[in-house]
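Reopening this one. Same input as before:
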Amino acid sequence: MLLSVGYAKTFKLMSKNETKPFGLSIHCSNDGKAAFVQYNKQAGYLALRLEKFTKSVLTNSNKQPEGYYYEWSELLGDKITGTYGVVEQSGRVTSAWYLRGKDGKKFELIAYQQTEADNELQKLLLHGVIISFTTSSLDETFSFKYANGKSITTDFGSLDSPNAIRSAYVKDYNFDGYDDIAFSLPDAGMGVYQTFNIFLYNPSTKGFKPLQEPNDARAKCTCLCDVSINQKQKLIYTSCRGGARWWQDIYQINKDNKLIYVRSAEKR
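Same output, byte for byte:
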């Protein structure tokens, strides 16, 4: 079975028709990034490098369910030791397999049942750091666990709402060539936009630090709201609602990871 809430996923899989059955979990973002595999009853894990990702969207014309195809290379250091594939449709795994590198044997995998819960712990692996969090808006704690064993636990925004779901995104928010991690929840008011907590990766320190919220009197939005990026122009957009209007603030980000105000405009 697939646990799929927000933009983080856990595929819980087991071998089919094997004399010595085994189980495993694949953790990844919604688009297959920051992935790793962990076998049942084993403390260690192996990083997965995304090789292919395709998405089909439900439309009125083709009447096909939303579907995803993932393919990852399994890495032991810099060596590829195998390949995993998962096909998901309408939130369910319809096909999965593992191709073992040393002998080319292919194992068919099936999803197994589990109880989904709002406080289910989600995990991502980004730059060798395990990032753990829950998708429940009632739980604001998450942690970074580094390869040297150091673990940093901190808090981010929460909502007193049992139905709101926290989403996670893996993107290069400061345009330095390294993916960062962001989380979002609906705003605490009408819930019409998402408020973001963004953590930027520093390749020099090999750690993550939060991106500070904008602090410019000219800005229409006082938070990191509905954040999107323009990779080509290296711009960061935030959007919020003020009264009956929607506004968009545009920022650049400097080498010190500080947001530099560019302009604001009404969003139509």
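So the earlier flakiness isn't reproducible anymore. For the record, Confidence is low (pLDDT under 50) at residues 1-5.
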